[in-house]
Amino acid sequence: MINPLLEIAEVSVGQHYYWKLGNFELHGQVLITTWVVIAILLALSLLGNSNLKPTPDGLQNFTEYITEYIRDLAKTQIGEEDYVKWVPFIGTLFLFIFVSNWSGALLPYHIIEIPNGELAAPTNDINTTVALALLTSISYFYAGISKKGLGYFKRYISPAAFLLPINVLEDFTKPVSLSFRLFGNILADELVVGVLVSLVPLIVPIPIMLLGVFTSAVQALVFATLAGAYIGEAVEDHH
After folding, report:
1. Which of 45, 63, 113, 162 has the maximal Cβ count within 10 Å?
2. What is the pLDDT, as a whole number, of residue 188?
3. How do residues 141-177 score in pLDDT, each as one tens digit?
4. What are the residue boundaries of the structural domains of the chain, listed by start?
5. Are 127 and 106 in contact (CB under 8 A)?
6. What are the residues facing 20 on neighbouring strands?
7. CA dist 210 to 55, 121, 124, 190, 192, Å?
8. Of residues 234, 232, 236, 238, the one with CA closest to residue 87
9. How many CA atoms, within 13 angstroms, populate the side-chain half-sphere of residue 198?
């Protein structure tokens, strides 16, 4: 009984494998797993679209289904007038987060030994989720300003000027909630699985792992949906 407890005590949060670049330190394990995710996405897109057919089948059918799903998501959240230009951004967010989350749940990273820390999903690192959230914030500011010009900032005093502090605070809390929701859910899932595997290596962790696969997909959908909703809010006309 003592050994499993000692293994649980060794489950750590925030240990990273760093690469030295002059005076800077880079999170090596995040870059490695991010490159794995990008390679998977590139391979699927190239294989699915390298030999397009009028009647899609196989992998082309799958990639076209994903594209249509993302188009419908963007159209629902942003609106029919403006959604087309934002399909690539929403789609990139959704696919990167989806594959990143599933890579942590499905790929056996733990069998690969590195000098310090361990390999895990890119979204298991707060730096990745904050970067994605900041990109989302920049995108909806850009969407609003590009469509309305400086008139976009009227929203801060709408419907009344005394709401200015609340509306400004809302824009600061959006990236915080986006990043911590995604990071917290993925990290919690991996920690729970790690603890259960230490306690009961067989059978018991499997339902939690399957639940983690499901929640990983849901988190990708939630992030992409909220990003689309924020962009839609920025470009909508207020009367």
Report:
1. 63
2. 79
3. 998 888 888 888 888 777 777 778 888 888 888 889 9
4. 2-235
5. no
6. 25
7. 34, 16, 17, 12, 12
8. 232
9. 18
Helix intervals (H) in 79-125: 87-106
Taking CA atoms, 192 is separated from 12, 27, 50, 133, 213, in Å, by 12, 23, 40, 25, 13
Residue in the block written with tokens 């000692």: 6
Helices vs. strands in the chain: H and E counts, helices first: 7, 2
Cα distances from 181 to residues 11, 124, 223, in angstroms, run 21, 11, 9
Token pair of 180 as six digits: 């911590």
Contact between 130 and 176 (Cβ < 8 Å) = no
Checking if the pLDDT of 179 tops 70, the result is yes
Q: Which pLDDT tens digit goes with each residue over 62-108? A: 888 899 999 999 999 998 888 899 999 999 999 999 999 888 767 66
